[in-house]
């Protein structure tokens, strides 16, 4: 028996959520901030790219055909990060996560053997986070997707403790996928907002989880970091050195590298065979999962080929291709 090939990083676009926020006070300001962070050229290119891939983002038949062409058996589908809307007030935020959870579940239900889903929680309203997670799980989703921070709150904020506790208790997957970078206009050219901003945000968010002791307090958390965890895994030696050298860096019980191998998971989307081998070296093959960022242009059209190019051992290749993810998602090994 062989495990299915599982892509844990794939997205769905939800027009229902877009209709909820259209014209609402605060939406225009959020769009203006996004425009400043990305720059006009990036917005133009991204708009055309999304339009070209709209059917892949919304239509299950086209999604399954693309999966078949790439040799992917199962996708873990999460809402486009553009649906976070962390600017929204309490009532609108509730409508956003309820709609996103329900709509993602309905999308995945059209191909139940091939698609599993993730919902959303409103990081800007920690008091709703547990309820949003329970709603997602109740809809049949495998967990939730979150960004690297909310306005004025890092993931180390004590207000999130009930959320982490509930996620650990339920075994929910928490998919950490940044949207936007607080370096703002410094990255507004050459698509630096994504190529530099996303891995930066990943590293900062993961460092908050590690150094604050969140993973010590909730060791059963199942956090999956997009984009290979950004810069943190390849620079984990510097984090370890700080932990050993400075008392103010010892917020966690063990050196930071410990948590990469025991508490966190990472997708394989690093765009470089050598970097992927390094990620496997520091985190272990049982902590790396296949990821493509389907169907966006910053993803991998053939994630299995990208994994194969890293020249890992057969056992490591198959664990990353789907063995570990199948266990996380409780998939049948012989479908």
From TrEMBL:
Keyword Amino-acid biosynthesis among record annotations: no
Alphabetical keyword list: Lyase
Gene Ontology CC annotation, any one: cytoplasm
Ranges of residues in domain Amidohydrolase-related: 6-331
GO-annotated molecular function: carboxy-lyase activity; hydrolase activity
InterPro entries: ACMSD, Amidohydro-rel, Metal_Hydrolase
Pfam family, one: Amidohydro_2
GO-annotated biological processes: secondary metabolic process
PANTHER family assigned to the protein according to its UniProt record, in alphabetical order: 2-AMINO-3-CARBOXYLMUCONATE-6-SEMIALDEHYDE DECARBOXYLASE (PTHR21240), ISO-OROTATE DECARBOXYLASE (EUROFUNG) (PTHR21240:SF28)
Name of the featured protein: Aminocarboxymuconate-semialdehyde decarboxylase
Native source species: Lentzea xinjiangensis
Lineage: Bacteria, Bacillati, Actinomycetota, Actinomycetes, Pseudonocardiales
């Amino acid at each position: 028996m062989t495990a299915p090939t599982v892509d844990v990083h794939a997205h769905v676009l939800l027009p229902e959520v877009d209709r909820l926020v259209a014209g609402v006070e605060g939406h225009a300001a959020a769009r203006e901030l996004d425009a400043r962070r990305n720059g006009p050229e990036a917005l133009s290119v991204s708009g055309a790219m999304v339009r070209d891939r709209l059917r892949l983002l919304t239509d299950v038949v086209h999604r399954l055909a693309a999966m078949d062409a790439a040799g992917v058996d199962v996708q873990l589908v999460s809402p486009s990060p553009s649906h976070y809307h962390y600017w929204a007030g309490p009532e609108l935020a509730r409508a956003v996560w309820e709609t996103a959870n329900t709509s993602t579940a309905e999308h995945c239900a059209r191909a139940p053997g091939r698609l599993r889903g993730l919902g959303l929680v409103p990081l800007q309203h920690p008091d709703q986070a547990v309820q949003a997670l329970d709603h997602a799980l109740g809809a049949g989703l495998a967990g939730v997707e979150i960004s690297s921070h909310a306005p004025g709150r890092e993931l180390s904020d004590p207000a999130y403790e009930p959320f982490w506790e509930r996620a650990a208790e339920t075994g929910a997957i928490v998919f950490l996928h940044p949207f936007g970078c607080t370096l703002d206009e410094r990255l507004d050219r050459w698509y630096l907002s994504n190529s530099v901003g996303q891995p930066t945000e990943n590293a900062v968010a993961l460092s908050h989880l590690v150094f604050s002791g969140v993973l010590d307090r909730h060791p059963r958390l199942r956090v999956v970091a997009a984009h290979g965890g950004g810069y943190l895994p390849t620079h984990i030696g510097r984090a370890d050195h700080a932990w050993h050298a400075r008392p103010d860096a010892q917020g966690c019980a063990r050196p930071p590298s410990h948590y990469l191998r025991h508490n966190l998971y990472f997708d394989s989307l690093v765009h470089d065979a050598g970097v992927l081998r390094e990620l496997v070296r520091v985190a272990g093959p049982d902590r790396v999962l296949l990821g493509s960022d389907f169907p966006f242009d910053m993803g991998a059209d053939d994630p299995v080929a990208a994994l194969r190019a890293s020249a890992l051992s057969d056992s490591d290749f198959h664990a990353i291709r789907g063995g570990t993810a199948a266990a996380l998602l409780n998939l049948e090994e012989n479908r």
